[in-house]
Amino acid sequence: MTGPLRPTFHEGQVLAASDLSATVEYARGLAARHARHLHDWGIAEGLDLVTQARTDPRTNARYVEVSVAPGVALDGTGREVVLTDPVVLRESDFEEVNGADRPTDEPYPVFLTAADREPARAPGPVPCTGGATRTRVEESYQILFGRLGDERLVDEQRPPATGAPPSAPPARWLVLLGYVRWTDGHFSGVEREARHVPVRFAGVRADTVSARSGSLTLRTAPAVTEGEPALVLSGGDRPSLVFGLYQGSGTVAPLLTVAANGNLTVEGSVSGRTAGGSNRVTSGTATDGMLLPLPSGVTPEQVADGRVVIHVRLTPRTPPTATDSTLVSTVEAAVDDDRRVRCRQRLYDPLAIPVTVVERPGAVDFLVLATVAATNGGG
């Protein structure tokens, strides 16, 4: 099998229509192979399912009009599918496919596929020679409604051979735009995911990504949005890897930073799997009735099933007193099986008149030691 054929020309050559068409087809094949092998197919821009509230004049029932926003998709053959204007979905088209179904809360898939059409002929005189032969093809689209479950057809599609040009209709490649809900003869809502099959967006295939500015940023949306996460890899004099959230100013507030020397700076806490045979500690002050916290990385489930053993030490705190002669004694300082503190203290001033004894809740300093049981082999 030969490789792609690139047309060449020479002086004095008589050019036939096939020669000019070959030039166009070579460029289309080149673009399709680039799109097919260096990108993952899907929605590249726009093509959202947009709703507009409406009222049925006959029944006064509320429903939504659904339209597809302008945008671009790349199908699995490497062909672009372009919508330049919003397209309103017709309820009659939906009923032709799914009108006989019983009422359901399940959403129905909506697909986009490429289509070739002959463009409208411009008004004016028609030449005597070759006037009836078309010289343009409109690379158009078709919007299709699927049956329940047809969204799984998307993953069953297979790309063409390595050197093949973009497929031409009637061969179809389905791009999932989303889902519509249908209630009482009208659209009632839209979804981006149903039955664990989400809308698919275009991607990039690359083993190396380099930044010309010296800083490479990954974020979860095209636009910078306050509160959304970002990952920033920076070079220069102070290389670093930063994960954080966007601020209103457009800068990233670091939550985790890895410096060039390997130092790790974390704004929050770090938790993970606790190795067998290790110990974890937490301490603080608690009052009567408080639940003692577990050390970081230790869960109540680990304590309940015996993987972690808890040791607690309590030291009663002496409260401030109204007089220097007041005596304080701790009646109770203990922790129950639920790690709840029980602390009662008795205050007595022998010089006071009348002599009274007061008992009240107290406070303790606590130390919680969690010992992780060693597994076989000690790890």
Account of the protein in words:
It is a single chain. The protein is mainly beta. It has three domains: 17-119 and 137-203, no CATH class; 227-268, no CATH class; 279-372, no CATH class. It has helices spanning 17-38, 91-98, 300-304, and strands spanning 39-40, 42-46, 49-55, 62-68, 71-74, 80-83, 87-88, 108-117, 138-145, 175-183, 186-191, 193-194, 197-198, 203-204, 215-219, 229-234, 240-246, 252-259, 264-266, 279-287, 308-316, 327-335, 341-348, 357-361, 363-372. The strands form eight sheets. It has a five-stranded antiparallel β-sheet with strand order 15-16-17-18-19, with no helix packed on it. A four-stranded antiparallel β-sheet has the order 9-8-10-11. A three-stranded antiparallel β-sheet has the order 2-5-6, with no helix packed on it. The longest helix is centred in the N-terminal third of the chain and has 22 residues, at 17-38. It is elongated. The relative contact order is 0.10.
